[in-house]
Amino acid sequence: MFITNPQIEEYLKSLPKEKDPILEEMENLGHKLNFPIVDKLVGRFLYLITKLKNPQLIVEVGSGFGYSAYWFAKALNKGKVVLTEYREENINLAKKFFERGNLIDKADFRLGDGIEIASEYKNIDILFLDLEKRRYKEAIEKLLPNLSSNALIIADNVLWHGKVVEEEIDNQTKAIKEFNEFMFSLPNFFSVMIPLRDGVLVSLKE
Fold first, then answer.
1. Which secondary structure element, helix H or strand E, spans residue 51, and what is its range?
2. How far apart are CA 59 and CA 76, in angstroms?
3. Domains of the chain
4. Half-sphere exposure of 195 (CA within 13 A, CB side)
């Protein structure tokens, strides 16, 4: 199921005129390998949020080969983004992209379980979730105490290919729906869901 009309999505992609050869290479690699990345539309959204927020610490739970983190790092002023990934080949590839983009000083690269690694950090200004969908709620429950005041939680794939509105759902879709409902009922957080690409949830700690 399409979240937005494919023609609308292509129109949105056609509007930006800026070019970043590293990002384009990462996009092409993601498409070639059928590797799940947030892609250009969500990447630009993350860049804008980062510019507005001016965070000191961004922690990604699930980074792949660093595409979303690259957008975060490009927008950072003096802060850092922590990449977490359980596959060594992906984290090593991310390092190479960041080195070529002169962003290596804005990132920490951590290999292992993303939730466990994230729990080592305090005062997280932006927590970005893009790990196994069944673990989204687990990540929030464990990491809430690690968030700064006025922190942002951003989660990708929250519409899960449109499956969230189907009557018969699989376990991953069920987990996403439970996470969405959890976030919208979480005290002291204001959540919105943006039907961009596969759905992006943004929650502000009030």
1. helix 39-53
2. 13
3. 6-14+36-205 (3.40.50.150)
4. 11
Whether the Cβ atoms of residue 124 and residue 58 lie closer than 8 Å to each other = yes
Please give the C-alpha separations between residue 58 and each of 16, 83, 97, 100, 137, in angstroms, as whole numbers.
25, 9, 18, 21, 19
Give the pLDDT confidence of 11-30 residue by residue, as tens digits. Answer: 998 999 888 999 999 999 99
Q: In whole angstroms, what is the distance from residue 47 CA to residue 71 CA?
A: 6
**Model pTM?**
0.95
Neighbours of 141 (CB within 10 A): 12
57-61 vs 200-205, strand pairing mode: unpaired
Q: Which residue shows structure tokens 């070639």?
A: 32
Q: What is the pLDDT of residues 167-179, one digit of tens each?
A: 888 999 999 999 9
Residue matched to tokens 């980074």: 63
Query: What φ, ψ does residue 72 adopt, rounded to 5°?
Result: -60, -50
Cα separation, 48 vs 69, whole angstroms: 13
- Yes or no: say if 184 and 191 are a contact pair by the CB < 8 Å rule: yes
Lookup result for tokens 């957008």: 71
Helix (H, G, I), strand (E, B) or coil at 171: helix
